[in-house]
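Aim 2 progress. For IVD dehydrogenase, the working sequence is reproduced below.
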Amino acid sequence: DIKTTAVRKGDEYVINGGKMWITSGSQADWMCLLANTSEGPPHQNKSLICLPMNLPGSIHIAKKIDKLGMRSSDTAQIFFEDVRVPCKNLIGEEGKGFTYQMLQFQEERLWGVATALTPMETIIQETIDYTRQRKVFGQPVLHNQTVYFRLAELATELELLRALLHRAVALYVEGNDVTKFASMAKLKAGRLTREVTDSCLQFWGGMGFTSEVLVSRFYRDLRLMSIGGGTDETMLSIICKYMDILPRK
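Predicted structure tokens for this construct:
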């Protein structure tokens, strides 16, 4: 629920409010701000504004958030007090901000799925390499059926996700609305990254619980896939809406 307001006064918007979870917020030169520009319905009262971070008024970077993963990417909490931005910095039409945001989510979610494929491939391959050379009771860990069957299952799930992504992207390039497929792929990617990292970390034993191996970093970093860009629960609601099985309020 967005509380930040941008009130038009002459040739400027006067911005007040705050934002949480702003990627690169503590070092950015400008931000793309979604704010309420009128008192209308929530889906029709928001606008996107290009906001330089050195404008008149107070832009206060409250803190750099200490995160579980993605620690090389700074994320900030920011407050605005009577920040003035020229009306010409409006992106598109006033009141269309929510619509623009929803449209870009298709690409963001497809991009998110694509960026998760290679890390998962890497984790599976590194786990194969490690369990092949690590021996327990005189034989490689990989030679346990529990291990090699599980790795085969994970590799299969990964290829199924890749196929769904390819289908969704092909349809999108042709100009179709792929909100349902993008949401399905995003949901599956979020769950599969958790499954792959958790299963593979287990096969690394004690080493998996250290910060010295890639699998533990991906275990932390990829957990964001089920939260950022729309939670798993949001994806399920969108899918249900497109299947016409979501109860109406």
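The domain at 97-243 is CATH 1.20.140.10 (Butyryl-CoA Dehydrogenase, subunit A; domain 3). This observation will guide construct design in the next reporting period.
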